[in-house]
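@channel sequence for tomorrow's demo:
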Amino acid sequence: MMNIIETLSNVSTSTFASFLYRSKTDKSLARYTVILGTNYLTLLEKSKLGLELDMANYSGDMLVAAQAVMESLNKSIVAHKAGTQSEDYTKKGQYTNIGGGINVNNKDGSIQVFGLIHSKVVIEQGEAKKPVKSAPLTIAKHTIRKSLAISKFREFAFDAGNIKTVKTNGDTMELDTVV
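C-alpha coordinates (generated this afternoon):
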Protein backbone atom coordinates (compact mmCIF):
# COMPACT_ATOMS: atom_id res chain seq x y z
CA MET A 1 0.00 0.00 0.00
CA MET A 2 2.86 2.40 0.73
CA ASN A 3 4.10 2.08 -2.89
CA ILE A 4 0.71 3.20 -4.14
CA ILE A 5 0.56 6.11 -1.71
CA GLU A 6 4.08 7.21 -2.62
CA THR A 7 3.46 6.92 -6.37
CA LEU A 8 0.06 8.62 -6.36
CA SER A 9 1.01 11.39 -3.93
CA ASN A 10 3.77 12.49 -6.34
CA VAL A 11 1.23 13.28 -9.06
CA SER A 12 1.78 16.95 -9.85
CA THR A 13 -0.30 17.29 -13.02
CA SER A 14 -3.42 15.60 -14.28
CA THR A 15 -2.59 11.93 -14.77
CA PHE A 16 -4.66 8.93 -15.83
CA ALA A 17 -4.84 6.03 -13.41
CA SER A 18 -6.78 2.80 -13.51
CA PHE A 19 -8.15 0.93 -10.49
CA LEU A 20 -9.74 -2.48 -10.18
CA TYR A 21 -12.09 -1.50 -7.37
CA ARG A 22 -14.88 -3.11 -5.36
CA SER A 23 -17.54 -0.63 -4.27
CA LYS A 24 -18.16 -0.37 -0.54
CA THR A 25 -21.83 0.47 -1.11
CA ASP A 26 -23.13 -2.14 -3.55
CA LYS A 27 -20.14 -4.56 -3.68
CA SER A 28 -19.87 -4.30 -7.49
CA LEU A 29 -16.44 -4.81 -9.06
CA ALA A 30 -15.37 -2.39 -11.78
CA ARG A 31 -12.32 -1.06 -13.57
CA TYR A 32 -12.27 2.70 -13.18
CA THR A 33 -10.12 5.00 -15.26
CA VAL A 34 -9.76 8.29 -13.42
CA ILE A 35 -7.89 11.52 -13.85
CA LEU A 36 -5.82 12.27 -10.77
CA GLY A 37 -4.63 15.78 -10.00
CA THR A 38 -7.87 17.37 -11.21
CA ASN A 39 -8.37 20.89 -9.92
CA TYR A 40 -11.48 20.73 -7.74
CA LEU A 41 -12.00 24.49 -7.79
CA THR A 42 -12.04 24.45 -11.61
CA LEU A 43 -14.71 21.73 -11.51
CA LEU A 44 -16.79 23.77 -9.08
CA GLU A 45 -16.57 26.84 -11.31
CA LYS A 46 -17.37 24.82 -14.45
CA SER A 47 -20.37 23.31 -12.65
CA LYS A 48 -21.56 26.75 -11.56
CA LEU A 49 -21.36 28.04 -15.13
CA GLY A 50 -23.22 24.99 -16.43
CA LEU A 51 -25.95 25.44 -13.83
CA GLU A 52 -26.26 29.16 -14.62
CA LEU A 53 -26.88 28.25 -18.25
CA ASP A 54 -29.40 25.52 -17.36
CA MET A 55 -31.40 27.53 -14.79
CA ALA A 56 -33.43 29.25 -17.52
CA ASN A 57 -34.92 25.83 -18.31
CA TYR A 58 -36.11 25.13 -14.76
CA SER A 59 -39.37 26.06 -13.05
CA GLY A 60 -41.22 25.09 -9.88
CA ASP A 61 -39.45 22.56 -7.64
CA MET A 62 -36.61 22.12 -10.14
CA LEU A 63 -35.87 25.86 -10.00
CA VAL A 64 -35.91 25.80 -6.18
CA ALA A 65 -33.57 22.80 -6.25
CA ALA A 66 -31.28 24.51 -8.78
CA GLN A 67 -31.08 27.60 -6.58
CA ALA A 68 -30.13 25.44 -3.59
CA VAL A 69 -27.43 23.65 -5.61
CA MET A 70 -26.13 27.04 -6.83
CA GLU A 71 -25.92 28.29 -3.23
CA SER A 72 -23.96 25.16 -2.28
CA LEU A 73 -21.57 25.60 -5.23
CA ASN A 74 -21.01 29.24 -4.29
CA LYS A 75 -20.21 28.30 -0.67
CA SER A 76 -17.75 25.67 -1.85
CA ILE A 77 -16.06 28.05 -4.29
CA VAL A 78 -15.63 30.74 -1.64
CA ALA A 79 -14.26 28.20 0.85
CA HIS A 80 -11.80 26.67 -1.64
CA LYS A 81 -10.53 30.09 -2.70
CA ALA A 82 -9.89 30.79 0.99
CA GLY A 83 -8.07 27.47 1.37
CA THR A 84 -10.74 25.95 3.61
CA GLN A 85 -13.67 23.57 3.31
CA SER A 86 -17.30 24.60 3.08
CA GLU A 87 -19.17 24.67 6.39
CA ASP A 88 -21.73 22.36 4.75
CA TYR A 89 -19.15 19.66 3.94
CA THR A 90 -20.16 16.65 6.03
CA LYS A 91 -16.59 15.31 6.24
CA LYS A 92 -14.97 18.62 7.19
CA GLY A 93 -11.69 18.09 9.03
CA GLN A 94 -11.82 14.32 8.57
CA TYR A 95 -8.89 14.09 6.12
CA THR A 96 -5.32 15.26 5.79
CA ASN A 97 -4.26 15.86 2.19
CA ILE A 98 -0.89 14.34 1.26
CA GLY A 99 -0.95 15.42 -2.41
CA GLY A 100 -1.98 14.02 -5.78
CA GLY A 101 -5.61 13.64 -4.74
CA ILE A 102 -4.71 11.38 -1.81
CA ASN A 103 -6.06 11.96 1.66
CA VAL A 104 -5.52 10.08 4.91
CA ASN A 105 -8.50 9.64 7.20
CA ASN A 106 -7.57 11.25 10.53
CA LYS A 107 -9.76 8.82 12.50
CA ASP A 108 -8.67 5.43 11.18
CA GLY A 109 -5.63 6.10 8.95
CA SER A 110 -7.34 4.74 5.84
CA ILE A 111 -6.43 6.11 2.41
CA GLN A 112 -8.90 7.95 0.19
CA VAL A 113 -8.08 8.71 -3.45
CA PHE A 114 -10.00 11.45 -5.25
CA GLY A 115 -10.25 11.73 -9.02
CA LEU A 116 -12.41 12.60 -11.99
CA ILE A 117 -14.01 9.49 -13.52
CA HIS A 118 -13.10 9.08 -17.17
CA SER A 119 -14.62 5.62 -17.61
CA LYS A 120 -16.07 2.72 -15.66
CA VAL A 121 -16.39 -0.88 -16.83
CA VAL A 122 -18.45 -3.11 -14.53
CA ILE A 123 -16.94 -6.59 -14.17
CA GLU A 124 -19.34 -7.95 -11.54
CA GLN A 125 -22.77 -6.48 -10.87
CA GLY A 126 -23.41 -5.37 -7.33
CA GLU A 127 -26.34 -5.67 -5.00
CA ALA A 128 -29.66 -4.12 -6.00
CA LYS A 129 -30.06 -0.52 -4.95
CA LYS A 130 -32.52 0.26 -2.21
CA PRO A 131 -35.63 2.25 -3.14
CA VAL A 132 -35.22 6.01 -2.82
CA LYS A 133 -37.21 7.48 0.06
CA SER A 134 -35.96 11.06 -0.26
CA ALA A 135 -38.19 14.09 -0.45
CA PRO A 136 -38.99 15.39 -3.96
CA LEU A 137 -36.76 18.46 -3.47
CA THR A 138 -33.81 16.25 -2.49
CA ILE A 139 -34.36 14.05 -5.55
CA ALA A 140 -34.47 17.18 -7.74
CA LYS A 141 -31.16 18.40 -6.25
CA HIS A 142 -29.54 15.01 -6.95
CA THR A 143 -30.84 15.08 -10.53
CA ILE A 144 -29.36 18.54 -11.08
CA ARG A 145 -26.00 17.65 -9.48
CA LYS A 146 -25.73 14.57 -11.75
CA SER A 147 -25.86 16.88 -14.78
CA LEU A 148 -22.88 18.96 -13.57
CA ALA A 149 -19.15 18.44 -14.17
CA ILE A 150 -18.55 18.01 -10.43
CA SER A 151 -20.68 14.84 -10.43
CA LYS A 152 -17.83 12.84 -11.98
CA PHE A 153 -15.46 13.67 -9.10
CA ARG A 154 -15.32 10.60 -6.88
CA GLU A 155 -13.71 9.25 -3.75
CA PHE A 156 -12.19 5.77 -3.65
CA ALA A 157 -11.46 4.05 -0.33
CA PHE A 158 -8.18 2.17 -0.65
CA ASP A 159 -9.06 -0.32 2.07
CA ALA A 160 -8.08 -3.99 2.09
CA GLY A 161 -10.67 -5.82 0.04
CA ASN A 162 -11.61 -2.80 -2.11
CA ILE A 163 -8.56 -2.42 -4.33
CA LYS A 164 -6.57 -5.02 -6.27
CA THR A 165 -4.54 -3.22 -8.93
CA VAL A 166 -3.53 0.32 -9.70
CA LYS A 167 -2.04 1.45 -13.00
CA THR A 168 -0.63 4.91 -13.57
CA ASN A 169 1.76 6.18 -16.23
CA GLY A 170 2.21 2.64 -17.52
CA ASP A 171 3.28 1.25 -14.13
CA THR A 172 1.17 -1.50 -12.58
CA MET A 173 1.10 -2.12 -8.85
CA GLU A 174 -0.49 -5.35 -7.66
CA LEU A 175 -1.76 -5.57 -4.09
CA ASP A 176 -2.05 -8.69 -2.01
CA THR A 177 -5.72 -8.14 -1.25
CA VAL A 178 -8.62 -10.12 -2.59
CA VAL A 179 -11.48 -8.21 -4.14
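heads up for whoever presents: The first strand starts at residue 15 and ends at 22.
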